[in-house]
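Sample entry was shown:
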Amino acid sequence: MENFASSLLSMLIALAFVLALAWVAIRGLKRMQYGRTTRAGGEVLTFVRALPVGARERVVVVHYRGEEWVLGVTAGGISLLGRGPVPATADPQLTSSLPPSAPPAR
């Protein structure tokens, strides 16, 4: 009976260690995933918004080096749709990706 108790205790300690390790790994991944700003060599890439236009296609707006980049993202690749200066009056979360000549959406 003593051998069974020590085996059970050893198994529970190992299980607790694995669960704690998984919890730490998940928290670390969430922090990396939800970070909207990524620094690479001092340059900042900021995600603004994504608009789905199909099952696996979307239009993505990012700010990079003081410019607003509009990208088309598909399963086959990424294409640059447009690029211009970041609007100075808009909040980065609410920035419109429409060109200045386009009529406002209703």
Q: What stands out?
A: The CA atoms of residues 3 and 32 lie 44 Å apart. The chain has a mean pLDDT of 80.
